[in-house]
Amino acid sequence: MARSALLNVMVQAAMKAGRSLSRDFGEVQNLQVSMKGPGDYVSQADRKAEEIVFSELSKARPGYSFLMEERGAVEGDDAQHRWIVDPLDGTTNFLHGIPMFSVSIALERQGQIVAGVIYNPALDELYTAERGGGAFMNDRRLRVAARAKLSDCVIGCGVPHLGRGHHGNFLIELRNVMGEVSGIRRMGSAALDLAYVAAGRMDGFWENNLSAWDVAAGILLIREAGGFVSDLSGGQDMLDSGSIVAGNEVIHRALLKTLKKPVSAR
Ligand code: 2AM
Ligand code: CA
Predict the structure, then answer these.
(1) What is the mean pLDDT of residues 77-97?
(2) What spacing in Å lies between the alpha carbon of 236 and ligand 2's midpoint?
């Protein structure tokens, strides 16, 4: 498959960071982690991966700005272009030896996401999308699932936990959705969840309290795979609001409505 020069740059950065994560993940699995504790080890793996992505992208496109999970915002000379990077999405999985983690890189041009790459090094699955050019996993073109009834659907979500999110709101959302669908999944990497919706593996997804780097690349993947994405109010403020709902056109709409079902209608 011929990729654009831009996607090549992003793929190279994501795969190089992914290889570094894979090596460190092997150590986590073999319990070779230092006595300082697995938390410190994982933070180091995370920072190493971010350094690789930062240096690869800066070399290939000098001057572009960055928004990265660890470094935060880095202003470049070129204010039109901004990389949005999560070097390790699914940190808790990584720490526990669960191979569901990813590197996520998106490029924004004048505020619009124009390219996205998500790489799961443990499964060697590479997701790519460029605006107007479709979405791919490795060399295969992606299309969101076509299911039209929530009762046939597997829906992914994120579950808030100790110190995060609004537990009461989530329980209401879950209660609304669980009674209408054929299965709920919670994988622990929002970037991969969105890639799975693009690939038609899951029919839909919702989560709250995410950051821009968790979702930027995944949003483009889903759109380029023919899917629909919004925030929980139905607007397009996913990057700032941190909430996201995704699916094909029918399931996206049904999910939005079901999530918001008033208490009295249950
Ligand atoms: P992480 O693994 O990079 O932390 C799981 O529900 C999803 O939520 C993951 O994509 C996880 O990304 C993300 N997440 C966890 N803590 C977060 C935080 N404090 N802010 C934003 N996203 C977070
Ligand atoms: Ca993340």
Answers:
(1) 95
(2) 20
